[in-house]
TrEMBL record:
Record Gene3D superfamilies: Medium-chain alcohol dehydrogenases, catalytic domain, NAD(P)-binding Rossmann-like Domain
InterPro entries listed in its UniProt record: ADH-like_C (IPR013149), ADH_N_2 (IPR041694), GroES-like_sf (IPR011032), MDR_fam (IPR045010), NAD(P)-bd_dom_sf (IPR036291)
Residue ranges of every copy of the Alcohol dehydrogenase-like C-terminal domain listed in the record: 183-273
Source taxonomy: Eukaryota, Metazoa, Ecdysozoa, Arthropoda, Hexapoda
GO biological process per UniProt: prostaglandin metabolic process
Top-rank taxon, per record: Eukaryota
Coiled-coil regions, chain positions: none
Keyword Transmembrane applies: no
Transmembrane segments: none
Protein name: 15-oxoprostaglandin 13-reductase
Enzyme Commission number, as recorded: 1.3.1.48
Keywords: Oxidoreductase
Catalysed reaction equations from the record: 13,14-dihydro-15-oxo-prostaglandin F1alpha + NADP(+) = 15-oxoprostaglandin F1alpha + NADPH + H(+); 13,14-dihydro-15-oxo-PGF2alpha + NADP(+) = 15-oxoprostaglandin F2alpha + NADPH + H(+); 13,14-dihydro-15-oxo-prostaglandin E1 + NADP(+) = 15-oxoprostaglandin E1 + NADPH + H(+)
Length: 280
C-alpha cells in the first residue's frame, strides 16, 4: 500500500521505498480529484492490475523509490482525472524488449506512481509534456540510489545551475535562500558556501535551522517565529547580493527590499501559493 498521507506531508524523506507485491500484479495510484488546498488521500485511488505482456520496444520496471515534489501541485491543475499520478521514480529493469535497456539496469524516469510500470521509453512523456526517456544510472557504488531523485537528480541540477548560472555568486557575496531546508534550498546553501559566499537560510522550525547551521549556513531565520525584515536588518546588514527564491509571496517582497545594487534573483519556485484553495 502507498502510505499516501505520510508521503504527502513529509518534508525530509521525499522518497519512499515501494514494496514489491507480486511479479504478476502492479499497483497504481490514480489521480481522481483535483486538489483543493492541501492534497488529501481522497484525491487518489489505489488500483491493482495484472501486468500485461511486454510488447516490442517496451520495458518493465520495478519501482524502488518514488518522488513527491512541489511542482506536482501546480502541474496537476491541467491534468485529466482518473489517470496514473505522474512523477519520477528510481526503478530497476525487470524485463526488456528495448535494445538500450537491459534487465538489472537502474534508471530514473517519469514512470509515475506505480509499483511495476511498463513503458516504451521512446514515447514516455514527462509531466511537462516533453518526451523524456528514463535515464540509465551509472554504478552508484555504495551511494543510495534514491540520490538520483535528490542531489544527483532534478533538485541537485536545479540548485547547481540556478545558483551558478542565474545568480552567478562571487566569493564574499551574500546569498539568501528561502525554502532553505528543502531539497533544493539546502543544496543551494552548501554550493554557495563552497563558492566562498556568506549564506542566509530562511526556514521554519528549530530542528531545521540547527541542521542548516550544521551544513555551514552563516545566518538562519525562522520565518514563522521571527520577523524576517527585522532579522535581515540586524543579522545581514551588508545586504543581499543573490536571492534564490523557492517560496514567492510576501517573503519575496521582504527579501527583495534587502537586495544590494546589481543583485541577482533566481525565481526557482513559489511554493507559498501552490496549495491555494480553489475559488468556488
Ligand atoms: N524551476 C525548477 O526547475 C525547479 C526544480 C525543482 C524545484 N523547484 C521549486 O523549488 C522549490 C523547492 O523545491 P524542493 O524540491 O526543494 O521542495 P521541498 O524539499 O519539498 O521543500 C519545500 C519547503 O518549502 C517550505 N514551504 C512550504 N510551504 C511554504 C510556505 N507557504 N511558505 C514558505 N515556505 C514554505 C517548507 O519548509 P519550511 O517548513 O521550512 O517552511 C518545505 O519543506 C519549489 O517551489 C519547487 O517548485 C523548481
Amino acid at each position: 500500500m502507498f502510505p499516501c498521507a505520510r508521503i504527502l506531508s513529509s518534508f525530509q524523506s521525499r522518497t519512499i521505498l515501494t514494496r514489491a507485491l507480486s511479479t504478476m500484479t502492479t499497483k497504481k495510484l490514480l489521480f481522481v480529484k483535483h486538489f483543493d488546498g492541501e492534497p488529501k488521500p481522497s484525491d487518489f485511488k489505489v488500483v491493482e492490475e495484472k501486468i500485461p505482456a511486454l510488447k516490442d520496444g517496451e520495458v518493465q520496471f520495478e519501482a524502488l523509490f518514488i518522488s513527491v515534489d512541489p511542482y506536482m501541485r501546480p502541474v496537476s491543475v491541467g491534468k485529466p482525472l482518473g489517470q496514473k499520478m505522474f512523477g519520477a521514480q528510481v526503478a530497476r529493469v525487470t524485463e526488456s524488449k528495448h535494445p538500450k535497456y537491459k534487465k538489472g539496469d537502474n534508471v530514473v524516469g517519469y514512470m509515475g506512481w506505480e509499483t511495476h510500470p511498463i513503458c516504451n521509453p521512446d514515447t514516455l512523456e514527462s509531466p511537462f509534456g516533453a518526451i523524456e526517456k528514463p535515464l540509465v544510472l551509472p554504478d552508484f557504488k555504495k551511494l543510495p540510489l534514491s540520490l538520483a531523485l535528490g542531489v544527483l537528480g532534478m533538485p541537485g541540477n536545479t540548485a547547481y545551475f540556478g545558483l551558478t548560472e542565474l545568480c552567478q555568486p562571487k566569493p564574499g557575496e551574500t546569498v539568501c535562500i528561502s525554502g532553505a531546508a528543502g531539497a533544493v534550498g539546502s543544496l543551494v546553501g552548501q554550493i554557495a558556501k563552497n563558492l566562498g559566499c556568506k549564506v542566509v537560510g530562511i526556514a521554519n522550525k528549530k530542528e531545521k535551522l540547527d541542521w542548516l547551521q550544521s551544513l555551514g549556513f552563516d545566518v538562519t531565520i525562522d520565518y514563522k517565529e521571527e520577523n524576517v525584515d527585522k532579522m535581515l536588518s540586524e543579522k545581514v546588514p551588508q545586504g543581499i547580493d543573490c536571492y534564490f527564491d523557492n517560496v514567492g509571496g510576501e517573503m519575496s517582497s521582504t527579501v527583495l527590499s534587502h537586495m544590494n545594487m546589481f543583485g541577482r534573483v533566481a525565481v526557482c519556485g513559489a511554493i507559498a501559493g501552490y496549495n491555494a484553495k480553489l475559488h468556488h
